[in-house]
Amino acid sequence: xxxxxxxxxxxxxxxxxxxxxxxxxxxxxxxxxxxxxxxxxxxxxxxxxxxxxxxxxxxxxxxxxxxxxxxxxxxxxxxxxxxxxxxxxxxxxxxxxxxxxxxxxxxxxxxxxxxxxxxxxxxxxxxxxxxxxxxxxxxxxxxxxxxxxxxxxxxxxxxxxxxxxxxxxx
Length: 170
Prior knowledge:
With 170 residues, the chain is of the alpha/beta class. It has one domain (46-169): Rossmann fold. It contains 4 helices and 9 strands; from the N terminus they run ββααβαββββαββ. It has helices at residues 24-27, 30-42, 59-70, 125-136; strands spanning 8-11, 19-22, 51-55, 73-79, 87-94, 97-104, 113-121, 140-149, 164-169. Strand 3, helix 3 (59-70) and strand 4 form a beta-alpha-beta unit. Homodimer.
């Protein structure tokens, strides 16, 4: 399927000079949504996964679907102050600012195999912070999956050593 035809560019969002890759047209089309979910699952062929981490907020769309199909648990990683239980925190930089991500302190057991999923790999700060949180809890990141990789922003360099897969690359 031509996933690129379902991605909309939004100029100057969230700030001037940034072109946002909007995935909502893909999500709004049943065939594209199903095909994307299947393609993301196929990128994990032969990879054992105990937990799937979805990154706030668009990572929450596909991560639970993947977890269900893999027979794995789903873990939300959220922005600071959004999780109700004890958390670990990790600051990160992104292409248009800084923030803090949190994970529940009991979300991952030592040695569990973890898939990290988000919608876009841009500068890599968000995914790098998530990988650090997973490892602080004793988990092993087995792969980082994205719908879109913005290769021109060199985010993969921050994820050196982690397998990275994406449906689309710009």
